[in-house]
Specification:
The protein is α/β, with parallel strands linked by helices. The protein has a single domain, classed as Rossmann fold. 38% of the residues lie in helices and 18% in strands.
Length: 208
């Protein structure tokens, strides 16, 4: 054949990093609080990620506006000789009235409300919060904007577990109901390549 089966396409490589460990993570809390800080363990995770990511040779580092994410991104960017840029729209899942509470606490103190939410934890939102379905569409819109503005680049995106899960679901064409089946530990690194006609998960939840 004189023509390639798969014409060359522009590929945008996105390395997804979940922020480092926090006290709220340790306590199993639901939290959107943008002021939550990294623990010493979280900073160690960020430094380990930074060392691992030197081999990636990225063009830019983007970060959620949350402090814990920004601090993780700054550690990584400094190691790479870059300055992290804030992507305002890529914030944490908004948990509304469940801020600072654990699932167990909610289940014990508000059993009917918890039961109603768990009947469909993808499409039902916490009181005053955001549904996972809504977060998924927000993350997808952010990805589209990112590729439009930085297509063909090699990007490190430091963000939150739920955003990483949403981009996995999108990239792999998974039913959104599988969202909660994906584990994204603090400080973990994943990589997805995107082009106009395909997405390839290169690796997931690597812990350096």
């Amino acid at each position: 054949m004189s023509e390639a089966l798969h014409p060359e396409e522009v590929v945008t490589s996105i390395v997804l990093v979940r922020h480092g460990h926090t006290a709220q993570t340790e306590g199993g809390m639901l939290y959107s609080d943008p002021t939550a800080m990294l623990t010493d363990k979280g900073r160690e995770q960020a430094r380990a990620a930074a060392t691992h990511l030197t081999k990636e040779k990225p063009d830019l580092v983007l970060t959620s506006p949350s402090q814990r994410v920004r601090d993780t991104a700054d550690i990584i960017a400094a190691q790479l000789g870059l300055v992290a840029e804030t992507f305002e729209k890529l914030h944490e899942w908004q948990v509304g009235e469940w801020e600072g509470r654990s699932y167990l606490d909610i289940k014990k103190s508000q059993p009917e409300l918890y039961k109603a939410w768990t009947a469909d934890p993808i499409r039902n939102a916490p009181p005053g919060g955001e549904s996972i379905e809504g977060l998924f569409h927000r993350a997808k819109a952010c990805l589209d904007e990112l590729i439009k503005n930085h297509g063909g680049k090699h990007i490190i995106l430091v963000t939150h577990a739920e955003v990483v899960r949403a981009l996995f679901v999108h990239a792999l064409g998974m039913p959104i109901d599988n969202f909660w089946r994906v584990s994204v530990p603090t400080g973990s690194i994943s990589k997805i390549d995107f082009s106009p006609s395909f997405a390839t998960l290169q690796y997931a939840a690597l812990r350096p």
